[in-house]
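Dissemination and training. As part of the outreach component of the grant, students in the summer workshop were shown how a complex can be specified as a set of sequence lines and then modelled as a single object. The example used during the hands-on session is reproduced here so that future cohorts can follow it. Participants entered these lines:
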Amino acid sequence: MRFQELRDVGDPVELGAAYSHAGADELVFLDVKATLEGRAALVGLVQRVSERLAIPFTVGGGVRSVADADQLLAAGADKVAVNSAALDRPTLVTELAQQLGTQAVVVAIDAEGGRVRSRAGTTETARTAVDWAREAESRGAGEILLTSIDADGTRAGYDLELTRSVSAAVGVPVIASGGAGGAEHVAEALQVAQAALLASILHEDPDRLTSLRAELHALGVPVRRVEVLHGA
Amino acid sequence: MRFAICEYGAGNVRSVELAFTRLGATRTDDVRVADLAILPGVGSARAAMAGLRSRGHDVALRERVVAGRPVFGICLGLQLALDWTAEDDGVDGLGLLRGRSLRLKEGRVPRMGWAEVDDRGAFYFAHSYAASTPAASAWSEGVVAEVRAGSFLGCQFHPEKSGEVGARYLAGVLEEARSLSLA
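and obtained this result:
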C-alpha cells in the first residue's frame, strides 16, 4: 500500500519557503495523519509556514468544524481542505462555504479504483469519486483535490481516467494528485485538470521545481514567469 | 506610511498585513487617519457588508474617498466598493465608484489560479464574481482585473498572494498613496 509509506521529508517551514522562492504556484499542506491520530492540524506550524510565503496556502488535516477552519485561516491559511470529516458529515462543506466563501473550501478526495476511501486511505466508503465530487460541489466546494491512491507513489503518471471523469462531472477546478514522475506527466494532467499537485519528487529535491518549470515551458505548457530574487 | 485594514470579522487578513509590512509600511487601527485604507477580500458579500457597517468602516471609507484620500480594495473589497453585487441574492455595496459585480459566466467557477493581467505578468485570482464598471483600468482573460476612480484603487487579483510580481504591485500602491497624501 503506497499510501501508507509516509516518510518524514524535512522541516515544512524551510521546504515551504524554498518552494515559494523557487516559483511554486501554490502550497498545499496536508497533515494526513491528523484524523487517524485524532488531532487538529498543527496551527503553530501553519503560522510559521505562512509567514514565509507570498503564494496561496491550502491547509488540511483533521478539520472537523467551522471553528477548526477559522483557526487555520487566522493562522495564515487561505483555504482549508476537508476529507474524512466531510465524508462523515457532508453538511460540513455547506457550513464552511457559507462562513468562509466557496473559494476557501477545498474538498480532498482519495480514490482507489474510482471509489472514495477515507481516513488517509485506510477506510472504504460507499461512494464513487464522481458522485462525491458532484455532491461536494453542490454543497459549496470551491475546488476538488483529487488523489489517486492507485497512482500515488508510482511516478508513472497521474490517474488520467479518474481525473478526467471527475473533472467532467463538476464545474469547479480540479487539482490532480498522485503519480507525478516528470514534466510530461504534469503536462498530461493539465489536459484534464486545472492544476496538478507535486509532492514526493519535490520533497526529495526541492531544486527540481525550477527545472520542472523549464521542462513544462518547453512542452508548451503555459507556466508563469518567475523571477527568483532571493537565493533559496 | 501607515496603513489600516478594514476588518469585518472574516478570513485571513494576516497575509495582507504581512505583505505591506514587508514593504516597510506600518499598520494602524484607525481607518480615518491612516495614509492608506485597505479593504481586504475574504468571505461572502452579505456578511462582509454587515461587518463593515457594524464597525463604521462604510462611513469612514466614503469620507476618505470624498476627501480624495487613498483607499485600496482587494478582490471582494473591490466588489463591495461598487454600487451593488449579485452575490448572496443581491447586496448593496459601498458605492465608492459606479458599477456592479456580476457572477462569472465562462470557464470554471470559482476562477482559481494564476492569470496574466494585461502585460504586467501573472497574478493569483480566486473569485466567482467580477466587476462590471466604466472604471476598469486593467483586464485578465476578459475579466476586469483592476479599477480606478478618484482616490479608489481596486484589484480583483490577490497581490499579497502573487509572489514577487504582487509585491512589486503593492509597492506601487504604496507609492501612489504617498503621492496622493502629499498632494
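Chain A is about 40% helix and 20% strand. Students were then asked to discuss how this feature might be tested experimentally.
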